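TICKET: design request
STATUS: open
ATTACHED STRUCTURE:
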């Protein structure tokens, strides 16, 4: 049980750091992110709301209660990472590695979250 908690906290902590880096880019390197979103074909007006949703998802992952909300956050991140991976892959910018790492961390976090909450 102790090993499972350690793995959960490490995976979730690394995922949190990755997401906070992403959110900070959305807020502090906005022009670079606008160019990236435009190259994906996404509208630039979704950048700030997307950053806020990512922050709210992180809060949901760390809340000890609200299991349903946590499940929705895991699901939302799962779809976001899959879409990010393929968006980067399809335009060929070589940045899909970050999405793949985030997806692996998310899956590990989810599996060990389920194990420690049996």
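STATUS: resolved
RESOLUTION: sequence designed for all positions
ATTACHED SEQUENCE:
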């Amino acid at each position: 049980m102790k090993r499972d908690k350690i793995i959960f906290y490490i995976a979730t902590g690394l995922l949190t750091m990755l997401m906070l880096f992403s959110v900070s880019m959305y807020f502090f390197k906005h022009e670079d992110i606008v160019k990236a979103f435009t190259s994906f074909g996404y509208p630039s007006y979704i950048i700030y709301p997307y950053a806020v949703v990512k922050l709210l998802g992180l809060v949901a992952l760390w809340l000890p209660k609200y299991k349903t909300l946590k499940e929705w956050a895991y699901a939302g991140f799962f779809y976001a990472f899959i879409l990010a991976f393929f968006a980067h892959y399809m335009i060929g910018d070589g940045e899909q590695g970050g999405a793949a790492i985030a997806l692996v961390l998310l899956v590990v976090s989810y599996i060990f979250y389920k194990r420690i909450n049996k």
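CLOSING REMARK: The mean pLDDT is 93. The radius of gyration is 15 Å.
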